[in-house]
Amino acid sequence: MALSSESIRNVPTGPSRKGPTGIEPARVTAGQPGSDKGTVTLEGDTARIDARGIYYKTLNEQIREALDLGARTVILDHVNGQRYIGAGLHAQGVTLVVNGVPGNDLATFMDGPTVIVNENAQDGIGNTMNSGLVVVNGDAGDVLGYGMRGGRLYVRGDVGYRVGIHMKAFGEAHPVIVAGGRARDFFGEYMAGGELILLGLGESDDALVGSYVGTGMHGGVIFLRGTVAEHQLGKEVGVAEPDAADQARLEEVVGDFCRVMQLDATAVLAEPFVKLYPYSHRPYGKLYAY
Amino acid sequence: MTDHFRRDADSAARGLNRIGEADRRSAVRRYGGLPAPGSRVPDMGPRPEYSAEAEERILGGCGLMGVCDESGGRMSGELAVRSMASMHDRGNGLGGGFAGYGIYPDFPHAFCFHMLYTDDASKDDTEYYLARHFVVLHHEPIPTRPVRGIQDEPILWRYFLEITDQRLAETQLSAEDYVVHAVMDINAHINGAFVASSGRNMGAFKGVGFPEEIGQFYRLDEYQGWTWTGHGRFPTNTPGWWGGAHPFCLLDYSIVHNGEISSYGINQRYLEGFGYNCTLRTDTEVVTYLFDLMLRRHGLPVEIACKALASPFWKDIDLMPDDQRKLYSALRMVYGPALLNGPFAVVLGMGEGMVALNDRIKLRPLVAARNGSTVYVASEESAIREICAKPERSWMPRAGEPVVARLAEGVNPAASRSGEAFEVAASPAAVA
């Protein structure tokens, strides 16, 4: 049954007050729609925006305005939960610094810039991202790099469920996700291309990775620093020891991650990795064909 | 009229509502004191009008939060409202609600019924019913203020109720069972009346609107509670209506829920066998009743109850050490029909504290944090940071692993059970 929003809103439930009367609830958080603008200060090519209480739409507009005025670095202070920061931003040599917890879909569709988050981040970072770099200096949530098409995502700490789901690669476009901590279930689910690297650094009671690793995977490669049991794996992935070419590639990517995170790459690379690869690039090709 | 409709009427007719049966008989015989001259004898026959607005199951993707100070420190409801306001965009204004615990220190032991009435007739009928079966210590309109965006609200009234020992002896029910029967009766049989909450020293405040509008409307800034839960709704299959907003409550248990319960049919059938009538046309309702069944009536530790609702997969049970395998196999066999399938994140508020739980493969967001004695949970970390800028610890709970906040002993004298955390792994013999 198709219902217009108006008819839903007007379901009669009582005889009392009718019509839009009364006070408007105060706007007390950044999550409530509003057109308040954040204070912007521009010094040289660095802009600072106070994002406290600023709705995500306005904040993203102000970021673009600052870049139009010539800023190359935009520092966002007091961010809390604003979604879509850096969404669709197409620029080279530009850096966004996020102080606070950014909302979902950070850097979605982003093409080129660098985003540095100095706190934990939420779900959906790098959704369909094209190119650029996202660095999270804390933990991050679920569904990172969903359908990611290029660029890099570095997370210092742990990541959640379904990281790298449906990542893909074509030609020059080659997405990479590196997480320094641990990951939960469905790591690399339906992965079609690119690289997922999990380092498991630091002390933790948690397993390196959860279950259903690489379920439906049909492209790309996963490297785990440590071991994984057979029962943790999806049916579509095989396990191998990295060969010389893989090792060289690990040294390059993990080396870059360690440089950005200021970690000792030699120590990180001293531990053995395992490589997970898809058995087939078309695992369900015969699912419905007898 | 749907099949669901008739099925509920059938289950009532099978005599699952003992108070209702007794009332129907007494109403026919006209004995016993009527509450006041001119009061109407309730017509317990036809189905409530409100159901017509919500005949289909409610599915949704929503936002939720919960906060509990284990030491019993009481917080303003404004805190919960602010946290929910930060997740404004998760809902669409067709449902918002809150549950507060420890908010009625003047009546800590009375069952407080928060009622939603379509009209005066439903109020008269319900008041007749309440006066017959309870001692009404106090009753009053639920205080509200006009808020732009909140309209067409039902009549909102609250009652502080006690049950006489004589009544309990006559019906041979515990006070809690007595209240459950009364709630089922009112929801199933009194036209246009709906019980929003029925617990001790707690209440649910819900309706159609964004959560911050609902919080303002119900003047939640004027209440102090040691546990608060909140919800912003995004209904996808049914109209937003006042009774369909979260939380869904029975006794001290309240549930806010993001997701959908795909196993609703099985759960509902199972619950019917225990006398629970699912009358509210929403999947979330079964979660509340399942917790009431397992925690209160079956006396399960909350960790075990959560493992029945979001049980480990058989393939994982096979890998467990012997004692745990025995425990989880038994749990899955005994409580198979209580298994919740589908994506969900729920926060259970209860007299003893608060519990947050995800489905088994984490299909809905949930983040937890702790600062001192206060435990926070929410759909987004930013909603926690909104009310606690720097928690000592924040983490993402594992799929199917409950986050439990327990009130210290003696904080809530009305809590039916209290005590130590139950170590699932360490005490497998408890159930085996």
Question: What's the helix and strand layout?
Answer:
The complex is a heterodimer of chains A (about 290) and B (about 425).
Chain A: H1 5-9, E1 40-43, E2 46-50, H2 56-68, E3 73-80, E4 95-101, E5 111-117, E6 131-136, E7 152-155, E8 176-179, E9 192-198, E10 219-225, E11 237-240, H3 244-261, H4 265-270, E12 273-278
Parallel strand pairs in A: 2-3, 3-4, 4-5, 5-6, 6-7, 7-8, 8-9, 9-10
Antiparallel strand pairs in A: 1-2, 10-12, 11-12
Chain B: H1 3-16, H2 18-29, E1 63-69, E2 75-76, H3 77-85, E3 96-101, E4 111-117, H4 120-133, E5 135-141, E6 155-162, H5 165-171, H6 175-189, E7 193-197, E8 202-207, H7 211-217, E9 224-225, E10 227-232, E11 248-250, E12 253-259, H8 264-272, H9 284-297, H10 302-309, H11 314-317, H12 322-334, E13 344-350, E14 353-358, E15 367-371, E16 374-378, H13 381-385, E17 393-395, E18 403-406
Antiparallel strand pairs in B: 1-10, 1-16, 2-9, 3-8, 3-10, 4-6, 4-7, 5-6, 11-12, 12-13, 13-14, 14-18, 15-16, 15-17
Helix pairs in contact in B: 3-7, 8-9
